[in-house]
Amino acid sequence: MWLPLAVFVFTISHAFGASLRNDDYITYYPGTLPIVLGAPHGGDIRPSEVPNRDAGCWDGSKCIWSHDCGEKDSSRCSATTVKDLNTKELTLLMRDELFAIYGEYPHVVINELHRIKLDANRLMDEATFGVPSMEEAWTTFHTYVNQSKAASQLPSLFFDIHGHGHALQWAELGYLLTARQLDENDFTPEITSIRRLADLVTIPFEDLLRGDESFGGILEEEGYASVPSPSKPGPDGNAYFSGGDNTRMHGSRSGGNTDAIQIESPSSFRSDSERPQYAKALARAIQRYMALHYGFTGNR
Predict the structure, then answer these.
(1) Phi/psi at 180 (nearest 5 deg)?
(2) Banded model confidence at residue 5, pLDDT cuts 50, 70, 90
(3) Using one digit for the tens of pLDDT, what is the confidence trace for 163-216?
């Protein structure tokens, strides 16, 4: 019997022991692991009734993000609208690979809207341009992330999954440190998105950030170049994404029990041919990182 897509997905997910929740434009897969995966820029839906995000207006000191703010200023207030290709698909593969390791699922929150309509990695005004339906979708995305964080009695880890178009084919791991701060060693644990973890572990923060036991170091051992890492402690003047609003909102820089790492993957890692192996490597890296630094080896 033919089933509508939403019913088909719901049925399959129940068959594998996990429920799925669809709230118009946001999909949430609840989990039981202290791991949350977010995919804010991988959606395709473009509601025709929602104007495209383009540019805001400059009021002399800041951008006003609105479709009817007046004269648009695309030089100072341009909205980024490019989709992160294959990041939704990568996130769902990571979900499956983590289940294969633990026998349990992580929490997964996916923005199904194209970034030209909603950017779920920006604050609400820039993300939505004041469109009520987009404000509702933005709120739903972050509500699910917050519910996922609160669901665990253990310290948890949030990964924000993105894709970059930079020339160098390495994973850019964002901890809210800029390229300059990494290159010049100008930082302290307190300004990072893994602040809570830095307070708990006994190893030096330098090792936690880019040593052999850092996430970048572990991912390198899995065969995928990363920055920061032992071989690439900083981007060395090259383009680098340091972590966005989601990493800031959902990490521990301002407190809380959840750390955050933004994963910006190059196009080669996200390609159809490489993506399955890369998802396996990311899942293994998460498993090792969680065991080393959180003492988590599974709930069973």
Answers:
(1) -65, -45
(2) very low
(3) 999 999 999 999 999 999 999 999 999 999 999 999 999 999 999 999 999 999
In a domain, 55, yes or no: no
Query: What domain count does the chain have?
Result: 1
The verdict on residue 251 lying in a domain is yes
pLDDT at 92 over 50: yes
Whether the Cβ atoms of residue 70 and residue 141 lie closer than 8 Å to each other: no
C-alpha distances in Å from residue 113, one per residue of 44, 223, 230: 5, 32, 37
Pair 98, 106: CB distance under 8 Å: yes
Whether this prediction's pTM lies above 0.85 is answered by yes
Tokens 């609208």 -> residue: 81
Task: Give the C-alpha distances (Å, rounded to integers) separating 73 from 69, 117, 198.
Answer: 10, 19, 41
**Number of other CB atoms surrounding residue 2 within 10 Å:** 5
Q: How far is CA 165 from the centre of its chain?
A: 16
| pLDDT score for 153 | 83
**183 or 6: which carries more pLDDT confidence?**
183
What's the residue count for the chain? 300
Range of the domain at 237: 5-43+81-294
51 upstream amide cis, omega within 30 of 0: no
Query: 54-90 burial, b if ≥16 CB within 10 A, otherwise e?
Result: ebbbbeeeebbbeeebeebbeeebebeeeebebbbbb
- Render the burial of 99-125: b for 16+ CB within 10 Å, e for the rest: beebebbbbbbbbbbbbbbbbbbbebe
pLDDT, tens digit, for every residue of 12-33? 343 344 578 888 899 999 999 9
CA 243, CA 251: separation in Å to the nearest integer? 10
